[in-house]
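This entry is passed on directly below:
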Amino acid sequence: MARVEETAKLIEVCESGVEVEDLAQQSGDGEDLSQVEADISELMGREKPDSTLRFGSSLVSKNTINFYVGKGYFKAGECRAPKGEDTPNPLEGETVVFRDFFTAGPRFPLDPIFPEILARLNIKMHHLTPNAIIQLSKFFWAIKTFEAPVSPDAFCRFYELHPQGQKISFEGEEEIYNAQSSCCTFVTRRNNKVLKLDRIEISYSQKNKWDYDWGQYWFYTKIAFPSVSDSEESVFPLASKVMPF
């Protein structure tokens, strides 16, 4: 039987913050919608697609992994290519990452605060976009340049999580799904008059357009951190199965 390669196609990226603002302007009654807790598809009167944990078959091959190792991006044995599965199934200690994460950053070894920031926001590596990695890299660079303490609180002072709804379909299927991967970035925190916090942007830096199929270049890797209890042992706090956002 011939093997049919299944690929995912990006249908639409919906930046929810923009559409909520549009709705507020269209309402015309001055009602404050900033505290409305509703899915954007409900506000727009659209039927929300079913969520999916499928990514589509990865375009990363064993040769690609060998190239990364040869360039020094990873050590041998730290990452592996998928074997044709369209829903990632990481082994113990592994996390799912995208190729373009390492165009935007990060650089190893990662700061131990990195997984603490993701844990604070209840997100996993596979939820992030490359621009989210840029924001994280920029934060660590700026804070460490001035030798300031790095903490999840400091990151949350500058940034807030910005979900980006993403609709995908798969080759040979008519169904459209709500993707649960590559769907979150970080934006500069807005003014907060109650807490008297001004909007502060470290430096604007992001890429407006990535390759349309960047989400198909995913693979598995182990990102080790030194154990707090035993410096000779490693732990893998970023390890995770694929989870919904």
Q: What stands out?
A: Residues 95-203+234-242 form one domain.
